[in-house]
Amino acid sequence: MSILDKARELGEEIASSIELEEMKNAELAMLNDPEASRLVGEFNEKQRKFMDLKARGIDLTGEQLREVEDLERRVMENPLIVDFFRKQHQFEKVIEEINEIIARAIAGGDAACPEECCSSCSGCS
Which of 16, 30, 56, 112 is spaced 20 to 30 A from 98 at the CA atom? Predict the structure, then answer.
């Protein structure tokens, strides 16, 4: 099996992972809920607006900072949004672990070596 075939196989495994499925389901639940969807849209709009101001060297006013804090509070109080963020974080952790395993294998270390260094394998010594 070629390296590209293995990469494709890994991609297929990731695509069928429970972590990705749970993240997608949480995203759908969040986007299909009118309140959560409205909050996400409002958050994205304000984020774009405020990033544009910062890019132009314009500092946010006290009122704009309060708007951001209030919106962040409302976003983090929505259980569907919080669940999506949690599931997204879990999926990202899996991807990070995969990348660490690949990096250790490329470096000639033990790809199965745990994150906590055991100092007994070639990847840790």
Answer: 30
3-state secondary structure string across the chain: CCHHHHHHHHHHHHHCCHHHHHHHHHHHHHHHCHHHHHHHHHHHHHHHHHHHHHHCCCCCCHHHHHHHHHHHHHHHHCHHHHHHHHHHHHHHHHHHHHHHHHHHHHCCCCCCCCCCCCCCCCCCC
Under 8 Å between Cβ of 106 and 113: no
117 band by pLDDT with thresholds 50, 70 and 90 = low
Structural domains of the chain sorted by starting position, each given as residue range(s) with its CATH number in brackets: 3-106 (1.20.1500.10)
Q: How confident is the model at residue 114 (pLDDT cuts 50, 70, 90)?
A: low
| pTM, 2 dp | 0.77
Residue tagged 């495994």 (tokens): 13
Q: How far apart are CA 60 and CA 10, in angstroms?
A: 44
Pairwise CA distance, residues 96 & 19, whole Å: 13
Residues 52-66 have pLDDT tens digits of 998 999 998 999 999
